[in-house]
Amino acid sequence: MIVPADPPGVPVSDDSSPKGRAALTKAPASKKQLPDPEVLRTDPTLQLEPDVRALMRARTGLERVLRDRNRPVQTKYKLTDRGLHILGRVKSGDDRPGKLIDYLGIVPSAITAETDKLVGAGLLARERVASDRRGVKLRLTEAGAKVLRESIEVTNSFLRPRLARLTREQLNLFLLAFAVLADPEAPTEIAPAPAVRATKPPARAAE
After folding, report:
1. Taking every pair of C-alpha atoms in the chain, what is the biggest distance, in angstroms?
2. Which residue, of 44, 109, 172, 201, is most buried by count of CB atoms within 10 Å of its CB?
3. What total of structural domains would you count in the chain?
């Protein structure tokens, strides 16, 4: 029997089986050197500034708590976080796929997949735009509005007593701070409350 010659550069082996030959031609895997976790943890270029970190933790904590509070609504209607968010955005006027893509910062295919689910569940409806043959507008159905009402009530019920612990001045400062962080052009002073006119007591009738 004639044994085929080894290809150039492959060492000769007594094991002429396909498995043995493959083992010889396979290059040894190189182990990548991973950075030390402790070095990464203390690397100052990977750390947020203290005030920024505190702000991000507060925002993330609030989002997580609200998400957990709304979980029963999502489970009841088989909704994802994004799906519930889309219902709210459509109600607020982001009723075109392009607007949702811009607002949420996700790829078009993700918006299409999510809105397909919401339309299939009867929570959203698609309508053609008369002025644009290829344009599609999203509309909240009555079923979608019902889901959104339940979610909004959960959020209001959770935050209402917590906000009530703040004075009006504290709440105004809190809202002002968030507005300034979101928009560098936002005014940094609280608008004065409208003056309350003093009312004169009614004149006494002549006796």
Report:
1. 138
2. 172
3. 1
